[in-house]
Protein 1
Amino acid sequence: MQESEIDPATYTINGSVLTITFDDSDGEEDMLLATISGNTITFVVESGYYAEEDSPTGGTIFVEQDLTYVFTKL
């Protein structure tokens, strides 16, 4: 079974900057900036990846990283 979720958003393009505006999980308006270069769109989600795991030596290990998405039209 495939799940899908529809989240309305708007976008504007000004030169090589694509701005996507949407409501975040708290219902607050949020913005995502992307760059357009030829047939490629690139954007970064700051702290977009987060993981937590118990350490074998005790304590907890936390990992948080930015995620970079690159979309290329073929």
Protein 2
Amino acid sequence: TGARELLATVIRANVAFIASHSPQVRALQQIVLNGGLGDWERHHIESLNRLTRLFVHGQRTGAFRPFNPQVMAAALRASIDSVAPLLSTGLDPDLCANELVELFDRGTREQT
């Protein structure tokens, strides 16, 4: 698959995971907010690095417009992580994933 399809798959898989593990994600967020999980920063950086590599690959293949891949990776990770409370209160995960896919598809696409 191409970079655009992979980006959509990453977003959909993350939203689906959060939606199906809502209590665990909420507990993890509370632990992190209270200074727990010393390895959390390392895991977060690894996640950002994987997303950055996806964006760099997409730029190299012409699937994505020029932008700072690290900034886009941070924006995507923050967007995905911030929907957890919405999903736990009943937001449809498919609707949520579709909106994020559309947002990041538009944000990474060359303007015509």
